[in-house]
Amino acid sequence: MKDGLAIFDAPYGELQSKYVIEQAKAKYPGKPIKYLILTHHHMDHTGGMRTFAAEGATIIVPAPDKAYFEKDLKTTHTVLPDELSKHPRKVQVVEVKDEMTLKDDESEIKMFRFDNPHVDGMLTIQVVQPNIVWVTDLWSPVRDTAKSPNSEAYAAALKKLGISGATLAGGHGASGKQSDLEALMAAK
Predict the structure, then answer these.
(1) DSSP E strands, the chain
(2) How far apart are CA 157 and CA 6, in angstroms?
(3) Structure confidence at residue 157 (pLDDT)
(4) d(CA 154, CA 138)
(5) Interatomic CA distance for residues 89 and 54, integer angstroms
(6) CB of 181 closer than 8 Å to CB of 139
(7) What is the reported pTM?
(8) Is CB count within 10 Å lower at the N or C end of the chain?
(9) Cα-only R_g, the chain
């Protein structure tokens, strides 16, 4: 974005998050990390959240997870103090109940909460231009070649949201075309 960066998910822990932060600062010098958008509460998507919070990022989460993350951010890690424990600060947590948009004169990022069989509370995130949509756990481009309740729920959500022609960026790896998911849904 014009005045800062939005990061999608913070997997596993502080070391990986520190690496991502370091790389972001190198690629986009002078742009602070303003937002960390978490797709859902599982640790392989949130384990490094506190490191981004220590950077000053606003944490954006799906409903009904706000209280859970606020509690996590208020705790102190004493055995292995992380950056947030070493440099405590007040962290803003914003909950997406249905839809939320971050927009400036350079970028537009839309977040949509939708029902699915994987978790109670999941976001998919669309970078409107160039129409890239972040998907985690429900369907992984290239890897997932068979229909599942998760992929069916995700395809239905995209249709309901009116998203079409997107590149789907997989939170666990590869990217693919939305038409690949649609073809999978059309297969018998």
Answers:
(1) 5-8, 33-37, 58-62, 93-96, 99-103, 108-113, 123-127, 132-135, 167-170, 175-177
(2) 23
(3) 97
(4) 6
(5) 7
(6) yes
(7) 0.95
(8) C
(9) 17
